[in-house]
């Protein structure tokens, strides 16, 4: 005689319950560990992510700028650490340009350009990249697009030569230059562990600004 069907059902139910429990607990462990990993990842956002993120923030602003509004327009091997620009606003037949905006390099809060680490953060004379909207008006607004920018880029030696062969001479930690009609943006970032005069990473973007 076969064991009554209900016996199998009870066994099956027990096994099923056990399996479901196991699957659930595995899923929960997985969810916990992946959220832990995610948190850890967020906490230790690497230099690469910081660089790419900052470059993207800069590029997004300049993608809608008009070429003729960009001042100054400097070509490599020269560079500029600040540019002013305007975007086209409105959709009428006649182009209307918006208020002047600026993206430029300036000393970080609490730093003086004196070869000393005035704010004791492990970086000497560090800079930041600031985006200013409605420049010089009552509506002027400023946002920091990048922090921990070293005074100098990867050229290394201030000797009037392009020592690192990037086409620009004695470049600072952040600059713009035009190269074959494209606006090049170069951004160096330091890790916040002090390496006062050496950049820890350099990121470069090319923007084809609209005519
Ligand atoms: Ca400092
Ligand atoms: Ca200083
Ligand atoms: Ca160079
Ligand atoms: Ca040099």
Overview of this protein structure:
The structure is a single chain. The chain is of the alpha+beta class. The protein has 2 domains: 1-44; 46-207, no CATH class. The chain has helices spanning 5-43, 47-63, and strands at residues 82-85, 88-89, 96-97, 101-107, 127-133, 141-149, 174-179, 182-189, 201-207. The strands form 3 sheets. A 4-stranded antiparallel beta sheet has the order 1-4-5-6, with helices on one face. Strand 7 (174-179) and strand 8 (182-189) form a beta hairpin. It is elongated, with a radius of gyration of 27 Å. The protein starts with a helix and ends with a strand. The structure holds calcium ion (4 copies). One calcium ion (CA) is lined by residues 111-112, 114, 116, 118, 124-125.
- Binned, the helix content reads 25-40%
Number of domain units:
2
Strand content: 15-25%
Unreliable residue stretches: 39-44, 194-199
Cα-to-Cα separation, first versus last residue = 90 Å
Number of helices: 2
Write the layout of secondary structure elements.
Blueprint: H1 5-43, H2 47-63, E1 82-85, E2 88-89, E3 96-97, E4 101-107, E5 127-133, E6 141-149, E7 174-179, E8 182-189, E9 201-207
Antiparallel strand pairs: 1-4, 2-3, 4-5, 5-6, 7-8, 8-9
The structure holds calcium ion (4 copies).
One calcium ion (CA) is lined by residues 111-112, 114, 116, 118, 124-125.
Keywords:
alpha+beta, 4-stranded antiparallel β-sheet, 3-stranded antiparallel β-sheet, 2 helices, 9 strands
């Amino acid at each position: 005689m076969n064991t009554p069907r209900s016996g199998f059902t009870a066994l099956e139910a027990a096994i099923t319950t056990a399996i479901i429990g196991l699957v659930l607990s595995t899923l929960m462990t997985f969810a916990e560990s992946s959220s832990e990993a995610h948190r850890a990842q967020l906490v230790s956002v690497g230099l690469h992510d910081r660089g790419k993120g900052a470059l993207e923030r800069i590029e997004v602003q300049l993608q809608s700028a008009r070429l003729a509004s960009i001042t100054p327009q400097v070509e490599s091997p020269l560079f500029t650490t600040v540019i002013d620009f305007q975007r086209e606003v409105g959709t009428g037949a006649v182009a209307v340009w918006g208020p002047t905006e600026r993206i430029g390099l300036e000393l970080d809060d609490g730093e003086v350009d004196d070869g000393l680490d005035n704010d004791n953060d492990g970086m000497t004379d560090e800079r930041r990249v600031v985006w200013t909207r409605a420049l010089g008006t009552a509506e002027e607004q400023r946002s920091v697009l990048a922090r921990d920018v070293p005074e100098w880029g990867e050229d290394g030696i201030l000797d009037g030569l392009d020592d690192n062969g990037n086409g620009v001479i004695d470049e600072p930690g952040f600059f713009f230059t035009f190269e074959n009609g494209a606006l090049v943006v170069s951004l160096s970032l330091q890790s916040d562990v002090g390496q006062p005069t050496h950049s820890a990473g350099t990121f470069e973007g090319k923007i084809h600004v609209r005519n």
